[in-house]
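Regression test attached.
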Amino acid sequence: MTPGFESTRSKVAFYLLMGLFIFLTLFPLLWVLKLSLISQGELQASPPTILPHSFSLGSYQRVFANSAFVKGIVNSFVIAGFTTAFCLTIGSFAAYALARLNFAIAKGVGSLILAMAFFPAVAIIAPLFLQFTKLGLVNTYWAMILPDTLLSLPLTVYLLVAYFRELPRSIEQAAMVDGATTLQTFFRITLPLSIPGVVTTGLLTFIFAWNEYLFANTFAFDPTTQPATVAIPNFASQFTVDYGAQAAASIVVTLPLVVLVFLFQRRIVSGLTAGATTG
Amino acid sequence: MANVTVERIEAASAPQHRGGLLRRVTNEFAHPDRRLAYLMVTPAIIVILAIAVYPLLYAFVLSFQFVTPNRPSHWVGIDNYINMFGDPDFRTALINTIVFTVIAVSLELVLGMAIAVALNRRFFGRGFARATAIAPWAFPTSVSAVMWALMFQDQVGIMWYLAEKLHIYTGNILGSTGPLMGAAIVVDVWKTTPFMALLLLAGLQVIPQDIYRAAIVDGAGPWQRFWRITLPMVRPALLVALLFRTLDSWRIYDLFWVLGQRNLSSLSTYVYEGVRISQLDFSLGDAAAIFVFVSSMAIAFFFMRVLGTRPTE
Amino acid sequence: MGRQSRYEPSSNRISRRDFLRLSGLGLATATLLPACGGFGGSSSSSGSNKLIFTHGPEQSGALKELLDRFNKSHDFEVVWQTAPADSGAYFDKLKTQFQAGGGPDVISGDVIWPAQFAYNGWVLDLSDMFTEEMASNFLSGPVQAVTYQGKRWAVPWFTDAGMMYYRKDLLAKSGVSKPPTSYDELMSVAKKVQQQTGTKFGDVFQGANYEGGVCNALEFIWAAGGDVLDPNDPTKVIIDSPQATHGLATERSLITSGVAPEAVVSYMEQQSHTAFLNGESVFMRNWPYVIGLAADPSQSKIKPSQLGVTSLPTAGGSTGYSCLGGWNLFVNAKIDPDKKDKAWEFIKYMASPEAAKVRALKGGFLSPLKATYQDQEVVNKVPTIALAKQLADQIRPRPVSPFYSDMSLKMQAAFNDNLKGASSPQDTVSTLQKQIGSIVKQGSS
């Protein structure tokens, strides 16, 4: 707790504990990686082997030979990408109004958006299904993009409000003195200066949308629109479960996230913790 | 995060003097910036009204009707709610959800705090440790459930093997409610403890070191320092983390659905079974949907009003 | 965010590194975009020259071979869309699609679905095409299963039946010459063999909380002479009977006697055959597909020669019964009228004796056609076909109801509770008597 007071022994203990923490956190990932790389025979072994005895890329071949899964990855990118774009567009407008413009119902709007962070998605599954059916939206990307946008909106808006308010007002005021309208100021000054915040927000929204399961499981029912998260449990034939393919598919779906997390860990952590610390 | 609303309201309240409604509205729209503000929040409001509020009201109306396929629905008053509370499956789902929320969130809080305290220093490899910590959080819950299901699998799973070797449990973990609940808690703790730790760590880092030095000079021991300084100062961050973790557990769906394969029910899976799986229990599921909504809002209200949690600051 | 700066340096400007990382991400997304078409309407309407067909994943490759052959000789294409493997999940998906007014053109559907599909108007009445005469080429059980209110709603494609697998070699080692015919006998044989050969389990079956658990429990109820609905009056629920109680008690006693492992309460087919093919169980109740796996040394530690297969034992009733499983071919009620003939041509091909032969030889699938059982090549090569031939009269369908899926959910949970010992056999049948009674009432009112 207090750096500088510690002995070598406590340092060793600290690194051992830290090593244990990292090992426990990564263990499932490593184990599933192992499952994805061993032979069918070894997968069925009971008790399971601790270290791999065989090597096979067969599981990955089966996964990538499965057109529904490959399409699922593409669908995941499209759904998460569009959700992020929508959320950032709608969210940055709302956030700017809340952060910088005086209007009477600002508090009400703020609370309404915040309430969406507490909103249980399952409560609207049934009526949304009926609504989307009437509009011909079921089994299209929209049926996932729209609800995903709704659920990511509170995080987007509140992060962006924080980032916008961090900018010194004087910069915006200077622009307005030069004759720019408020909207011009928003597009030319506020938004460009907040790009790092927008990026962080976008990353988090992308991850949320990539991971969404409930809406995808309800509104997408064939490979044209199903994202990868829904396609994975399908690696089974009627009576047999293909553990190897499930493992390989899990690795493939989480890989983009592992890459994102390790590349952008600073930004992601700052975005996630922003809510808890500043103010 | 910055305080979003309060200051705004104070400034914006200026034009709201007494007078007719019409005059107030005209006043409000007199200034171009305020007109712009309404325009800018409109898309967000439309999305919320169309995708959340309207369906919710629809679900609310349906919860007072009896709905079956191929027959006109009719009004039944609060019968659906009475039947729902009388349904043993609903009570199981409710108890499961409470048990899961209380145990998982408590474990995550205690472990998360311990890890945050340990991490609150500069050390070699901190970036790596931090990235590792958010990795499980960033994984899709449904995929995490698949991965853990592979590990809990009877006869061939590593967790099944460990549980048998350590004499914790010898049956099929994924088969009955008790062990499944244990498994679900393990997965949830694995997935969100590091995230909890990060939130708490961020809270710890704003505590000035001088306070600790002063306390040490005054002869306070490590435990005293933790209870008297760390905990009170980290309280706001802790409450926010607690609020969101509690609500996430209360609404849990994907983990139970994928890991439990219908052997472990939560309120959300009960709703889903009713409104999407069964043809005859739609009304029960719809009543439960409203129950989940109301209870979630009550939890949020309790945290914000009673405990003073301020998630937007 | 100011106070956080110690922790989060430079969060206010985007570094060159971050910029490069982001452009990479954007580029990846952009290259993927043109490859997708999920923004438009439902996919089933795609192209008049394509027929969408759904069926779960298959390991044997038999279906793929048949589709390739069919597509080569026709001027339209049948596209196989893989459905969820689990029958329950598949049903939920189809229900969703039908409710949304879409769905595949030709559907391979579980033997328990015809009544529900017909009642909801989701599939076409095929009686005019699947004539009395054509139906006479099929075994009567599978045809009965696709008949609801006097009309035929699907064409049987392949069937399944519960069978008792056993280890010939282990039984011989313990001096048992022929497989048991009653569960009492099975339990004493299993215990003896377990003790003498050190085999881990005596018997494994499917006891989990899912559709297969219903099949298994019903087999015990039937083996004791009980049933769910009165065969002469399907609106009468008769599950609360001493026979049904005895059947469920027998199923539970397999666990309490130590013959079956405790974990069997959560076994599906996968866990059962994993144990059996790893050489860890003397007996196993399962479907015909296991024969195919046993022939593959990478999947099985026991050889086909060590394995025997016989009919299910009795439990105090006159004979044992096998639960009828299997898949039928339906046509979507909302199919494009121009495609109706194409769909029928495809179904006729899939239900032909030639196709059935390919599926039997390649995947061990049981044919619903009488002709297959006369084909000596098939009977000699596929032992389960030979057995099914003898069994024909002992294969029973599950209860028929337009709300079968709800009925099944109740049975799944109740039978699983019985097996776990959470509810006594007597309580289980009396609970089900009430629950099924109210479902039957909804269906007939």
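Expected vs. actual: identical. Chain B has two domains: 6-81, 83-306.
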